[in-house]
Amino acid sequence: MPEREAEDSVIRTPLPCPILIHTQHYIYTSSSINIKFSMARTQDEFGQIVFQISVPQTQEAPYHARRPHSKSRTGCLACKKRRIKCDETRPGCQRCQKRAIPCSYAPDKKPDRNNALTSETSTNQLAGIAFSLSLRDMEDLVLQALEADMKWNSSPLKGTRNARSLSVVAFQQFVNASTEIIGHPSLRRVMKTDMIRVAFASPYLMYTILAVGILHLNRMSPGGGERSLVESYFWQQAIRRYQTALCSSVTRENVDALLSTCILMGVMSLCPERFSPTDSWVLTNRPEDMNWLCLQSGLRCITSLAGPCLSESIWAPAFKETHKEESQIYGRPVQQGRAGFDTDLADLCEIDDCTTKETSPYYSPLRVLAVIMKLEKSARNADQCTTWVGRLEPRFLALLRQRDPPALLIVAHWMGLMCCLSQWKPWVESRIRSECVAICMYLETSPDPRVLRSLRFPADACGYPMPAS
């Protein structure tokens, strides 16, 4: 009789499924563990969409006794950890292939003490979109990555059972659900595979992933005091370590972790726990309240610093694919003129047939906006529209800090467009819709009829009732 392996409770990444769209959302697991979220959709006084779910407690994986076996001293790390015989097939043994888990072998030479975690985890190849981890293995890997950081070892959260379990739930939520918001398959594939591998050897990226996962849960089901505390702690640790990492040069060793963290870090500013139109920099007149918008340009800064390292990054193939699609959408870039622009916006920005991006800070944002406003409403195009905010240059951002009406109208049009795409980008309900309302409130008393006409689309899109003309 062939040897029977002990059954593990396995958490698997699902096939792509809608998130924050339907009235119920599931995190798919094995038959022994099934977590279901019942979600209600309501509106608050500012017209923001609020999602509420109930999150039942998960159960511990059941214990199964293993049959005795002969030892394999040169087997893979996964089999050694499970204490089962390994067939020692390279690069991946048959048991790991059967369980669809990463398979790696101990290095021939003794690894450097400082790179022990990297040697053991960064060589794990999470091939394909779907991969599996037992509950125990996943908890061990997540906590192992965190414990590489001394702050976690001294954290008051470390010793509590709930904090440990919430770390695993947050990781599971990120892989199974948060990544599904990403419409582009190549970007989503990196987030589900190579980026996770990098995170096991990079504490600040792991903290960021856990923070995004727990933030996702908290925004869907607000009011959890303990989860909010854990979210705050994860973001605090992620930001501190990320800032330290940014002080060093971008190298082949850290470029993947830096890029991955930068891509995810914007989630925090786009999805605050509570936000209303009166919190917008437009109405508070505090320039620092606009920092969330400046943060979205961070990826462009890191890619420019990465230089030749970028071509060897885990993100290189995905970036190349998205760049190819952008080239098809935008075609040969127009260098000057107002063709295709909204007439009132072009007039307000004083753009004529001779205007170029060098002569006007409004030109590039308007040129890209004119293209994406005409795209068909779809999940893939919603991703393309999202990238607009990351293209904003410093001189345009400076105009926004001054609450320049033409600049505010341009941003309001993008925000209105994102409100129209909220079916695929539900995160706009956390901040973008309220920011759009704030701009409408600020500009609605303008004596310029061109401003009021240009304000009509964003006001309708975000649900702000404009006064009768």
Automatic annotation (TrEMBL):
Gene3D superfamilies: Zn(2)-C6 fungal-type DNA-binding domain. One of its GO terms (molecular function) is DNA binding. It comes from the Eukaryota. The chain crosses the membrane at residues 198-217. Residues 75-105 form the Zn(2)-C6 fungal-type domain. Keywords: DNA-binding, Membrane, Nucleus, Transcription, Transcription regulation, Transmembrane, Transmembrane helix. PANTHER family: STEROL UPTAKE CONTROL PROTEIN 2, ZN(II)2CYS6 TRANSCRIPTION FACTOR (EUROFUNG). This is Putative C6 transcription factor.
